[in-house]
Amino acid sequence: MIMKKVIVAMMLMAMTATTVAGCGSNDTAADTTTETAAEDTTADTADAAEDTAADTAAAGAASGAISVLSREDGSGTRGAFIELFGIEQKDADGNKVDNTIDSAEITNSTSVMMTTVAGNKAAIGYVSLGSLDESQVKAVLIDGAEATAENVKSGTYKVSRPFNIATKGDPDGLAKDFIDFILSEEGQAVVEENGYVSEGNTGAFEGTKPEGKITVGGSSSVTPVMEKLKEAYTAVNPNATIEVQQSDSTTGMTSTIDGTYDIGMASRELKDEEAAQLTPQVIALDGIAVIVNKENPITELTSEDVLNIYTGVTTDWSEIAQ
């Protein structure tokens, strides 16, 4: 009997131990299930945040550090740009100071500016409207106005400047005949066909077909339309040889003063010291298009936005009202 009681007691103890172990296993499984659910919830929250960020970007919100591009010193486009947007200011002594942010990346031509902006999603730059290639970059509206030749002509788009040519003294021979063509009905038709604004013409061209060679040089913004004018002129005067050299507006004027160029090109007004030594002539009006990368959702800026970006007050696209 005693032996039976011992055996029964041992069986009861074993059953109790098994029950306790089972409860421990159930608790562990429950804890594991809880932890897995928490992890899943965290992952779902992260995924939702990523989806929200993606949706925000898709909705057109721009963000990230702005990459500012400008033109080189001596560029007529830069000179006109900083003047028109108030980036250039006079100091206490009356001297003009260019306040373009020091970190701006400098490009040395219209074409390089466009390809650089096209390759940088965060970039902003500016180019001659007549040279704008919208397959590469996007021109933004400024103060609600689109950058078009029609808006420049009507005055709606106010970011514009003159294209000037200049000679040392009164031109003669081939230089005079070419300038007469540029200002004629035929020449100004070429100007307008290439996206620039004509301020009128002198009537039908009556050339004398002089022989010889002249060199025209200067602004990279004026160069494209000058090449077209050269092509049209030499079609009616095959006796002429015209070499067009691309540099910048300042070089165009100084090289005309020293006799290197017969005709200089400037995409701005002549400076006082230049005008004192040269005879200028406006051949067209051109807008300056403010450009961004085609993937940038920004479509419009105010003049104040551009000023703040180029002087370093605004440094991130998220700071632009959208």
Question: In short, what is this structure?
Answer:
By secondary structure, the chain is an alpha/beta fold.
Describe the structure.
The longest helix has 57 residues. By secondary structure, the protein is of the alpha/beta class. The N terminus is likely disordered. The protein folds into two domains: 123 residues, 3-Layer(aba) Sandwich (D-Maltodextrin-Binding Protein, domain 2), CATH 3.40.190; 127 residues, D-Maltodextrin-Binding Protein, domain 2.
Given this structure, which CATH class of the largest domain is correct?
Alpha Beta
Largest sheet: 9 strands, mixed
What Rg do the Cα atoms give? 35 Å
H/E element sequence: HEHEEEHEEEHEHHEHEHEHEEH
Identify low-pLDDT runs.
Answer: 1-30, 32-39, 48-59
Q: Please state the overall shape, judged from the principal axes of the Cα atoms.
A: globular
Total beta strand runs: 13
Task: Enter the CATH topology name of the largest domain.
Answer: D-Maltodextrin-Binding Protein, domain 2
The separation of the N and C termini measures: 94 Å
Helix content: 40-55%
- Report the structural category: alpha/beta
Number of H- or I-type helical stretches: 10
Summed up, the domain count is 2
- Strand residue percentage: 15-25%
- Mean of the pLDDT scores? 87
* Second CATH tier, the architecture of the largest domain: 3-Layer(aba) Sandwich
